[in-house]
């Protein structure tokens, strides 16, 4: 490592030195200003600028400023000039050292020169002082780089920095022990690839050894939800999207991944670890993964530090000293933390503190944390920059893909067995039977259905409880019986005896807040239970070994530790034990603990009618008693009704009426919670009536998540609602239903003229000729440019998402009316040349091929909106060949683009910037664009830098923190809307409460302060 990096470093230093000499030898100064202002008389050439020089610069520059500066009273103008001088004094003077500390960037230098806190300036005078500081910094850099001594000083600084870098590389090489670190990384990567490269598929387990299948064969890509910035022209804001999980995880440094039991969270982490170890293409290609399963630490007195990661993960390799910490510091570590929900509530504070300390000590590392949704709030760790995403239920196409994967693996296991009939019958069953279709949207349930369909010769159970019972019967009895396996380990256990022991073990884990136990402790528990089971032959060790090997429900992930193969089976068996023990009070008391959610639901299914009534009435009473969890317990009782085939009608009615009080939902997160109650919620959902736009959209969303014919009828009631958010949900809903039926019932009457419709399958494409008003289409998942689209004469907007097969855009020339085009994650597109001469008004490029040439944009005469989120090779806006723009978006992938040249687009009124550097450049510009909408992304915002934009109507802060309070925004008289989305720290809204004309839109989890000062209609929660 050291040899190659040293050679590169030395070559870079030589090249940089040549550039310095050539640049400084051409003309004096940095060329940052057109008319440089001298900070001192011509006969003086100070090498450091103090208060007198700063005051002189400020005096001259103030005369050049337009806008409100000349209208200030003289005493306020003079006070502003004094503040500039005081700012330079506080810095200790600006000389070569100050310039080098700011990397010769005037904006960074200005950031180190705040207006003194005690200056006592009016808002207008303070704004003038800030403007003058920024301008003075530009002229200071210009002047100091003209000094005769500066060239030599710059050469010395360059050599010093190169030497420091060389020493850092050499230290790394020394610590690696002459390549030991690199060699160990290769060994560790091979271990990770071997350990995490295989997956157990439920139902494909035979004999004594569990069969495992290549993850490449078994894994399917799942969707996650979240809010994404809306980059369509003239429509700033957020919209809910479905993206591939891998894409979402790759787009953020820190992710909180939420999903219910069996949704694929752990498998996704396994896939990430495998791809990082293989250095597969993607943002984690250079990362080293560390998989930490929190369940393993619930009995430990502390959580692991970096040097303990390998031991904690069960890695039997010894790393060189400091190897893990070096990866964490450099940002190459990928820390995968699995199962916050598997940590008892009493220990979650400890877990949060541990994560915060890791992030504080190692902020450059990447982190992915998984949990069930109910375990922690969505804004958990939002202040540390975690982006929340929710794993979505599998859609129809994904269910089909999963069934195909499972049966391909089964054919490998049983090459002589004809499985085609089983696969075909299951595909038909999950399509025709709504009960099975709903179960199949969960990967674990889908695997159960695949296994049972094969085991029961295509005769499948209907309800979830019946499904678990059949699975237990298959695993505990039939599989060994049909293979004539008995008496292994010298133990004979009936089905009931196995279930009795397993459910006691499961309930012991639940009561103790654990998901795994030491093997020795488990054997001791079995010994206690065998005292009342004298008929069982064998000692406790033999009996437990039999359960571990033969039941198919237990495993030993790490030597000496035992758990259930999936938490769902633990909850199911534990619930059965709780009911048989008549622990109804225990169930009700713990119902507010999210780790008991599934236990309570399944207990209702196991219970007899009178016992069921006792549990549900207990939940309602506790909801009234514990006000903080009232809504949660009512929704839990509603979700239990799906598991209650027989129940007192009066109690069912009371639960339904209590649930109705929580309607209509006003956030999409509430829609997801309501949908868990199943079909009963459909009867409670209100019709269009007088619902607000947000409420109507969430009602449609709730019904879509429930699914089925009744849900379709409920959605159809909204088909004439033309409000944008409702239209978007109506269009989104067809992914959950048969496409043709959805078109008939809903979309045929929906005004789709300004709403994007997602097409992600051949079935969806076949419906387009029935939707003449579908003028805006999103093609997702490798569909290319299909004839069904190019043959349509009315397509005006088209976006391509996640299409690695798309290389040539020539076919788009057939769309003469195409005005909007978006390319999202299409790395195969080779050229934008085919777009030449098209009437495009809007072009969006997100994560396309690196270095893709933008020169063809020069021929797009109608282009008014351009959004870039890619490394296009563009370094400055001056190199962007677009003559006129009204809307420009520079997102994360374009955060290094310099704003030089922005001033030529005089009609620009919507601008998106990413990172502090671009905002500082905007603030330093002499010519200020007349912006109507400003969107800031991924930065710490100093609101005082924005007050120059007096005509600003909307300000959008996406994943931003605040460097100071929002008071400066009061100086924007036209501001009517502030949007706060996924803020990276607390946002105090209280300074804005007095502005009655200003509303606040909120997306995602945020820590908002001062909301109690606003009336409800001024703060609108959009998700």
What key phrases describe this protein's structure?
single chain, 7-stranded mixed β-sheet, 31 strands, alpha/beta, 13-stranded parallel β-sheet, 36 helices, globular, 1023 residues, disordered N terminus, 42% helix
- Number of continuous helical runs: 36
Question: What general form does the structure show?
Answer: globular
* Fraction of residues in H or I helices: 40-55%
Poorly predicted segments? 1-27, 174-178, 204-210, 230-238, 478-487
Give the termini separation: 48 Å
Order of strands, widest sheet = 15-16-17-18-19-20-21-22-23-25-27-29-31
Structural class: alpha/beta
Q: Which value, in Å, is the CA radius of gyration?
A: 32 Å
Would you report the number of β strands? 31
Mean pLDDT: 83
Please state roughly what percent of the residues sit in beta strands, choosing from under 5%, 5-15%, 15-25%, 25-35%, 35-45% or over 45%: 5-15%
Q: Biggest β-sheet, characterized?
A: 13 strands, parallel
